[in-house]
Amino acid sequence: MDSSREDEKFKSNLDRVAHHAELKEIIECWTRDLDIDTIVSMLLDAGIPSAPINTIDRVTQDPHIAGAREMFVDIEHPVAGKITMTGNQVKFTHNKATIRMPAPTLGQHNYEVLKERLNYSDEKIEQLIRSGIL
Fold first, then answer.
1. Euclidean distance between CA atoms 55 and 77, whole angstroms
2. Residues of the chain with pLDDT > 70: what percent?
3. Are 82 and 76 in contact (CB under 8 A)?
4. Is the pLDDT of residue 25 over 60?
5. Which of 96, 97, 71 is nearest to 85 (CA)?
6. What is the number of other CB atoms lying within 10 angstroms of the CB of residue 38?
7. In this predicted structure, what is the pLDDT of residue 9?
8. What average pLDDT is seen over the chain?
9. Where are the beta strands (DSSP E) in 3-131?
10. How many Cβ atoms are within 10 Å of 85's Cβ, its own excluded?
11. Residue 87 and residue 67: Cα distance in Å, rounded?
12. pLDDT per residue as tens digits for the range 36-92
C-alpha cells in the first residue's frame, strides 16, 4: 500500500478508531522487537507525547518513583526483620510523611484497645485471656 495513502487513512482520531484492528497490527509489528524505553524514546524524538506503562518491577526500580519520591521504604519489623513497605504517597512541602512503625503483630494492641477504647477493666481483660478469647 502507498505510504502516503496509509498516512491519510489514520489522520484523525475517528479514522484511527475506525481502523483500530489494522492500526493495532501495524503498531504491534513495529514494536515487536523493541524494548519499552526504545519505543518511548523514538516516539518522544518524533514529537509524540508518550510514556511507558510500567510493570511493577520497573516501578520498584524507577529512580524517580522508588528513589526521589520514596514510594518504597525499608523498615524493621519485630518478627519479619527488614521489610520493604510502600511509602506514603502524600507529599507535603514542609512536613515529611513517614512510616512511624511496622504493621502490628497479631494481638499486639489488644490490651490498649480493650482498656483505653472500650474501658474494659484489667479483670475483664484477664478473664478474656484465661477463657482463650484473646
1. 27
2. 95
3. yes
4. yes
5. 71
6. 11
7. 73
8. 89
9. 72-77, 81-86
10. 14
11. 11
12. 999 999 999 999 999 999 898 999 888 988 888 889 989 999 999 999 989 888 888
Grid cell, residue 73, equals 521504604
Residue type for position 70: E
CA within 13 Å, CB half, 132:
0
Residue type, 48: I
| Alpha-carbon distances of 24 from 18, 28, 64, 98, rounded to whole Å | 11, 6, 31, 44
Rounded to the nearest 5°, which phi and psi values hold at 81? 80, -150
The cell for 33 is 522487537
d(CA 106, CA 120): 20
Does residue 29 surpass a pLDDT of 50? yes
